[in-house]
Design goal:
alpha/beta; about 30% strand; Double Stranded RNA Binding Domain; 3 helices; 6-stranded mixed β-sheet; single chain
Length: about 170
Amino acid sequence: MKNLELTIIYLIIISAILTIAGCSGYQNSSLYPKDVSTIYVEMFDNQSFKRGIEFQLTDALAKRIEAQTRYKIVSNRDKADTLISGQLTGVRESVLTTERQIGRALEKSVELRAIVSWKNLKTGELLMDNKLISASASYSEWQSQSFAYGSTLAANTLAMRIVEQMESKW
């Protein structure tokens, strides 16, 4: 009985030590740079032949930054800590599946590619330097979904990926 009590005490001590040691490297701090509080989102340029998607992307990015980070979007560049800008370099539409007998497209895909930069206006440091980021989304005209629907989904996904890239490096 005495050995069992000692074994239990040793197990409790060892588990307490392992718990303390395992938690020592954990931080509950923000993943985003701390010296930034406001961002000016510049309208994205569009190098593709599909017009209007740059507005969707810029709007989606501003909303995503406000929703997922502690940063605030400002409309005056002079009052911003940082500036995020970019250009939509490619909008590609492709067919995923076709109807067997007729050859009509059943499902299509929209891929958006953008080059994004994020600059600290106080220090001049580039937080993100011409980073190529892409995203895609699929849609089906048979489900009353259009290219506009697919491009909106792709723009939202691209905005989410841009915000992910804004996190501090580990």
